[in-house]
Amino acid sequence: MEFAGKSVLVTGGSSGIGRAVGSMLAERGADVTIAGLDQAEVDAAVADLTLVARGTVAGFAVDVRSEPEVRALVDRAARPGGGLDVVVASAGVQRYGAAADTTTEEWDEVLDVNLRGCFLTARFAVPHLRARGGGSVVVVSSVQAFVSQRAVAAYVASKAGLLGFVRSLAVDEAANGIRVNAVCPGSVDTTMLRDAARLFAGDAASAAELIGRWGAAHPLGRVARAEEVAEVVAFLAGDRASFVTGAAIPVDGGLLASAGVVLPE
């Protein structure tokens, strides 16, 4: 019951890492509000979270690119008398293409969802966190804020931008008792990863093999489970991380620690 009495908002909370975070914090006592783009997916996530929740659970279909929709979402999450204690910004999309192959529309979509969406969430949430005397913001970035695959120009730009935003927000809000941190996952077994594998592999069997190869590139030899990332998010969100702010924590199975050039056996 680490989060008992805490009010938590998770964007991107209907799938992947965000859903795992919402479930974990709900099980640990938080009143959780999740947001996702698809109403049916949000409803399914709320039903699952309710099974384990020790507090209340609510969910809304929201486009994080929309200022009015994000403002309304934050106001719903910060219920009268309940305030807002924790914000997890997990909404994100991936589109593939080198700079010369990325359309302006694709660039704008990725930057608007991944970066603008985080900014809008923070913009409207921070006053509620200040009113509570402080709180925690955790942003889901990526190892690709530091290194890049081929053909992910927009995604890498957005994830690197998130780390700059995290540092700025952490410095600006420290005096208000608000801590701001990021997690930077490697490959995680989510719908986004499986969609990418199918895109490049062509069929389900080859996609599973490709995910296995991606996992083997991590020194721990596999891709992560969403719950493993959620554990680090929960640590940063809670009081155990009371002196941690402005940090970017890799949750990557050693990927960033490993050189790409391997010596022969």
Automatic annotation (TrEMBL):
Coiled coil: none annotated. Belongs to the short-chain dehydrogenases/reductases (SDR) family. SUPFAM superfamilies: NAD(P)-binding Rossmann-fold domains (SSF51735). InterPro entries: KR_dom, NAD(P)-bd_dom_sf, Sc_DH/Rdtase_CS, SDR_fam. CDD domains: SDR_c. This is NAD(P)-dependent dehydrogenase (Short-subunit alcohol dehydrogenase family). It holds the Pfam family adh_short_C2. The keyword Oxidoreductase applies. Residues 6-181 form the Ketoreductase domain. Keywords: NAD, Oxidoreductase. GO terms for molecular function: oxidoreductase activity.
